[in-house]
Fold:
Amino acid sequence: QSNHGWSINRMQSAVEFQVDAKMENVTGRFGQYALSGFEYTPGDYTSLRGKLIIDTSTVRTGKAARDEHMLQDDFFYVERYPQASVTVHGVQDEMGEYVALITLQIRDKTQEYAVPVRFMETDDGFAASGKFLVNRTDFDLTGNILANSIVDDYVVLRFNLSLVREN
Structure:
């Protein structure tokens, strides 16, 4: 699907999560993600629409055994659901503060959120950053009994995306 000449500069971008656990706080990031159906009129953030497709098999938390477990059917279940997505339906300008209206899909579950977003113009495009809280059980990311006893249900999703206009 066309992105109207826009792409993500992955060297200056990150899609991450953080969850509190009894032994340690876990921070993870996804290595592969891409735009789909992206639309944006330069200078008008309220025109932004599109989808961020995330390859859930590229999750990395710094521990190989944990990463492997997150691919299994009690977490991302990548064999059946290889992608997660964030669909931006619109951006509202609330007196200079921007809020993106999004749908997050993980596995076959979806939830809608209103996410505060910071935008910044760059030499070759713009950057968008923000974070929001999700309940992992809303997406059937249940974990096994041991995981549920040590991992918090609430996860912070963070994004910092550098979008560049292709010549």
The helical segments are 64-70, 145-150. The chain is about 10% helix and 60% strand. The mean pLDDT is 92. Residues 12 and 162 are 6 Å apart (CA to CA).
